[in-house]
Amino acid sequence: MDFIKIDKLLNSGKDSIVYDSHSLNMNKETTWYHTSLQRIKSNSFGGAIILGTSIDISNIKNVELKLKRSEERFKSVINQAPIPMMISEDDGTIIYVNNSWIEVSGYTISSIPTIRDLLNIGLTNIRDNIGSTTNNASILTKGEYELICFDQEVKNWD
C-alpha cells in the first residue's frame, strides 16, 4: 500500500489518481503495477474511504522496453548507413533522418517536418511536375532528383 499516494489523493482535492510503480519480487525481478486510487466517500473528520486497484503490467513494460531497445538498434544502423535516408509516416510526417541525409542536404526534421515541406523547399522540380499538395513519400522512390540543399547548393540526386 502506497500511503504517500493515498495522502496525496486526500490532500489534492481530486477524486482519483492513477500511477505506475514497480517493486522487486522475491526472485529480484522487477514487477510493474498500474494502480488507481478512487476516493469513494469522505467524512467531516478528514477520514475517507479509498478504493484501490492494481494490475500487474510487467509484460507490457517488458515489451515496451524490448521495443525501445529494438528501435535504438534500428536507428543506430540507419544512422551509420553511408547513404542518406529518411523515414516518414503514411501522412507524410518525417519522423527520422540519418546523419548522411543531414550531411548531404543540410536539412533536419525541424527544417522539413513533412514530405510536402521537402517538395516546397528542396525538390521543387518534382513539385512542379506533380504539384505541391501531396504528402506521400512514394513519389520519391525512383529517378533522378534535383535537390536544393539547405545552403542553396543544387545537387543531382539519383
Automatic annotation (TrEMBL):
Pfam families: PAS_8 (PF13188). Residues 70-112 form the PAS domain. InterPro entries: PAS, PAS-like_dom_sf. PROSITE patterns: PAS (PS50112). This is PAS domain S-box protein. It comes from Thiospirochaeta perfilievii.
